[in-house]
């Protein structure tokens, strides 16, 4: 049965409200103007949606500076997440052990459509370290973790990613595919200043008992410290941890 006009309007309002909540992935507080720019909607529409989210407890408005932040209702919902199957929670102790062993930042990434998302991270204790905020979305075209997520994806998914109209023209697809084949043979991927100047990373696949890719385990740090030679040296450690983590997830 086709949707009527009221149903379409309701769905659009829900999508817009969710877009507003997603604005807080990388920011703790935002003004009406900032939110309006991020979701590309006029202020009057955003204001009405903010008022509804505030009434339901999903957002809180600070009256002193007129900025919004996430409300406690989201914490109530998160309390009911089935964390036993959440790799970000389940693998955290192993990530901390790897961080302590290599003294570099350790992150966990999953693929979401045409992007990768950092779902967990433990930062290095060193003064100069890789800062890795959780929830950040990054492209699949560059970075050690991206190459792992694409290399171990099924062929249809690989073609969907590589044939996307937003794929950077500066990155040759054939050369990229050759990199993916090499990664499958090695069992890990590396990157040096591919996405961010001064930063290197090594990543390995976390596969469950069925052999399906669950996430990419990455170790990142300053390129001056995490050199290619150093990454080759620690590669067996990273892949060993990734294999062990694979036995812990479904």
Low-confidence sequence ranges: none
Write out the CATH superfamily name of the largest domain. GAF domain
- Range of helix content: 40-55%
Count of the separate structural domains: 2
| Form type | globular
What is the rounded Rg? 21 Å
CATH class of the largest domain: Alpha Beta
> Oligomeric form of this entry?
single chain
- Main sheet: strand order: 6-5-4-9-8-7
Along the chain, the helix and strand elements come as HEHHEEHHHEEEHHHEEEH
* Structural class by sheet pairing and helices: alpha+beta
- Any guess at the CATH architecture of the largest domain? 2-Layer Sandwich
- CATH overall fold name of the largest domain: Beta-Lactamase
Termini separation comes to: 38 Å
Total beta-strand segments = 9
Q: Beta fraction of the residues?
A: 15-25%
The largest sheet is:
6 strands, antiparallel
Mean pLDDT: 88
Q: Helix count? A: 10
Task: Explain how this protein is built.
- The protein is α+β, with helices and mostly antiparallel strands and 250 residues long.
- It has 2 domains: 5-76, Arc Repressor Mutant, subunit A, CATH 1.10.10; 83-246, Beta-Lactamase.
- It is 44% helix and 21% strand.
- The chain is built from 10 helices and 9 strands.
- The chain has helices at residues 5-22, 32-39, 43-55, 72-78, 87-90, 92-102, 144-151, 155-162, 173-186, 228-246, and strands spanning 30-31, 59-62, 67-70, 105-112, 115-122, 137-139, 189-192, 199-207, 213-222.
- Strands 6-5-4-9-8-7 form a 6-stranded antiparallel beta sheet, with helices on both faces.
- A hairpin with a 6-residue loop joins β7 (189-192) and β8.
- α1 (5-22) packs across α3 (43-55) and α6 (92-102) packs antiparallel against α10 (228-246).
- The radius of gyration is 21 Å and the shape is globular.
- The protein starts with a helix and ends with a helix.
- The mean pLDDT is 88.
């Amino acid at each position: 049965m086709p949707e009527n006009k009221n149903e379409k309007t309701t769905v659009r309002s829900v999508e817009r409200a969710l877009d507003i909540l997603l604005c807080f992935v990388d920011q703790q507080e935002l003004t009406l103007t900032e939110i309006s720019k991020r979701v590309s909607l006029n202020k009057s529409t955003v204001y009405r949606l903010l008022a509804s989210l505030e009434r339901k407890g999903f957002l809180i408005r600070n009256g002193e500076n007129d900025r919004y932040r996430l409300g406690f209702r989201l914490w109530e919902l998160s309390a009911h997440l089935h964390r036993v199957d959440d790799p970000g929670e389940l693998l955290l102790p192993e990530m901390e052990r790897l961080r302590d062993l290599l003294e570099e930042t350790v992150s966990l990434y999953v693929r979401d459509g045409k992007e990768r998302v950092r779902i967990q991270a433990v930062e290095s204790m060193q003064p100069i370290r890789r800062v890795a905020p959780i929830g950040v979305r990054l492209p699949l075209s560059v970075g050690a973790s991206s190459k792992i997520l694409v290399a171990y994806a099924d062929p249809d998914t690989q073609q969907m990613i590589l044939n996307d109209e937003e794929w950077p023209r500066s990155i040759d697809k054939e050369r990229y595919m050759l990199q993916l084949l090499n990664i499958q043979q090695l069992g890990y991927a590396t990157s040096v200043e591919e996405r961010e100047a001064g930063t290197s990373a090594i990543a390995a696949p976390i596969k469950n008992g069925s052999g399906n890719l669950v996430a990419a385990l990455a170790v990142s740090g300053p390129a001056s410290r995490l050199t290619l030679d150093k990454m080759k040296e620690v590669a067996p450690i990273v892949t060993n941890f990734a294999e062990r983590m694979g036995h812990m997830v479904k």
